[in-house]
From TrEMBL:
<protein>
    <recommendedName>
        <fullName>Protein ImuA</fullName>
    </recommendedName>
</protein>
<dbReference type="InterPro" id="IPR027417">
    <property type="entry name" value="P-loop_NTPase"/>
</dbReference>
Length: 194
């Protein structure tokens, strides 16, 4: 029996991720794709992506950044980009809850454009329309050891419309730009991150 791999995410669908490891999870998703990547967030946010930090995941030259006025604008940009399909991966940082209507619009746009959407959400901010919902966390005991250059991460599915929910423990390999799967377990779907 082969170990299930978490990537690539199902094409033509929109997915969600929450937790302290959302950015690293999104970067791992970027590494599993080819072509340009559109990353959308609100323009008032001071923090942003550092291209040097992305190099161990993917070529930052593939990244297109868009800054919306607010979450409504961010969702509109995501929807149009997904529907167009020119960009195979569209990522949006959404600091407030996504309504069912907005979530459904993203799903329909992703299906039409055969693109993949990823929403970076708060733990209770997702939409019922999402194909999968993930909780991503670093595993700190590994990070605190001296000489560690490959972070250990836990990616747990809270929702999966296409099959059972699973939890992966991975270590990121910067040389191959892929996650090395250390363990995978079935887990019960949950709306509360563990």
């Amino acid at each position: 029996m082969t170990t299930p791999h978490p990537f690539p995410l199902r094409e033509g669908r929109t997915h969600e991720v929450c937790g302290m490891g959302t950015t690293s999870f999104a970067c791992a998703v970027c590494a599993s794709t080819t072509g340009p990547i559109l990353w959308v967030n609100e323009r008032h946010r001071r923090e942003g992506l550092n291209p040097r930090g992305l190099v161990s995941f993917f070529d930052p030259g593939r990244l297109l950044l868009a800054r919306g006025k607010d979450q409504t604008d961010t969702l509109a940009v995501m929807e149009e980009a997904l529907r167009d399909g020119s960009v195979p991966l569209v990522i949006g940082e959404l600091p407030r809850e996504i309504g069912l209507t907005a979530g459904r619009r993203l799903q329909l746009a992703a299906k039409e454009g055969r693109a993949t959407g990823l929403c970076l959400i708060l733990p209770d901010g997702g939409s019922n329309a999402a194909e999968t919902r993930w909780h991503a966390m670093p595993i700190y005991d590994k990070l605190l050891r001296e000489g560690v250059d490959s972070p250990r991460l836990r990616w747990r599915q809270l929702k999966n419309k296409s099959g059972p929910c699973r939890a992966w423990e991975v270590e990121w390999n910067a040389k191959t730009r892929t996650p090395e799967i250390l363990s995978v377990n079935d887990c019960a779907p949950s709306s509360v991150p563990v």
